[in-house]
Amino acid sequence: MPLINNRFTEFQESYRNKPYERQKDSLEVQLSSFLCSLVPPKKVSAATAEDIVKFLISKDAAGKQKLHVRSCSSKTCSCPKRLAAGTVDSYIGKLRAIFNRLGRTGFSNPLAHPCVKKYLKFVREEQAQQPLPPRQAVPLFYDKFTRLIAYLRGLIAEGSALSPLNRYLLVRDITFFVIDFYTGDRASDLGRLKADQLFRLKDREGFLLNFTFSKTRRAGQFRPFALLRIPNVPVCPVFWLNYYIAACGSLGVPLHGEYLFRSSEHKKFVSHRPFGGSAVSARLQKYLKAAHINDGETPHSFRVGISYTLKGLGCTPEQIAQYVGWRSTEMALYYTRRSSASASLQLLERVTLNLTSTSSPPALQLSHQGNLQRISYS
């Protein structure tokens, strides 16, 4: 029984640590607080479809989609802001799962009521009529990337008075940003990379990151990504990975069996949870503002920036999709539709195996499997 109970606890912790589950739990708390403020107050289990729509309307207070009135002609107007239609749709999906968990399934689930579907249709039509161009994350290009890393390196150099936790967070952040820039991966996917999925090339000139689980990748699928050493040491991914592993060893942060990048727990100690999502965004925004180079970039800006850079290097949509890990070229065309820039190949020379060969992804990335060695974190 002790072994069974330990395994059951491991299952529960893994399930609760999933980003989607944490988002649902947070949304349920917000819904409960909203229902308690009604007259008379209600419990979540007694909520109706009208209550759900009113709750979604209350969430507009945090919206960023500005709806301009006909008489508006100013970019800095006071027109109301709303939640984006996609965000509303996402909330509806999470709320439906919450009520299913409470036992209100099928037609007894308030999210199945036509009122909720009509509200989503109303929001989509309202925003579709706005004369707004499609929005895309602000690209983060190589020049700003080097300035960001230079700022963080300065913090490390001046951080003799930092606590062990703050030193770990700083080294974690700079290593995470460097790898995210070169891989073009989603921040949430990179954050869920396990330390045991990182392999070192036997010539010690690079690492292989074996992405096996992400938003679009599930069990049985994988995307190995090789990072090679580059001459520009301050932004070299191999240098920072080695630095990060050494720092974790000296600071007493175990990596074996854990996520490679982990978040902190109440700013007191390193947790077992992955570093990703809103935490990455908050840290990136903090550093960009402190360095006075903030133009609204988000973690997704790494993905957009590398797509533009690859197109500037002359890569085809098929090669861009191969590099970033998209299944089709449609996403590559979408992300680079506004780019007509050209760039020197020296920008990313020998950054990854993906740029130094025209082989197909499996042949390219798996050809070095015999030259790998597992990293000892002891």
Question: What's the short version?
Answer:
The chain is α+β, with helices and mostly antiparallel strands and 378 residues long. The protein is built from 14 helices and eight strands. The chain has a four-stranded antiparallel sheet, with no helix packed on it. A two-stranded antiparallel sheet has the order 1-2.
Mean pLDDT: 82
- Overall 3D geometry? globular
Count the helices. How many? 14
Q: Supply Rg.
A: 23 Å
- pLDDT under 50 segments (min length 5)? 340-347, 349-369
Structural class: alpha+beta
In whole angstroms, how far apart are the ends?
30 Å
Report the count of strand segments: 8
Family: Belongs to the plant homeotic and developmental regulators ALOG protein family.
Keywords: DNA recombination, DNA-binding, Nucleus, Transcription, Transcription regulation
Protein name: Tyr recombinase domain-containing protein
Domain ALOG: 19-139
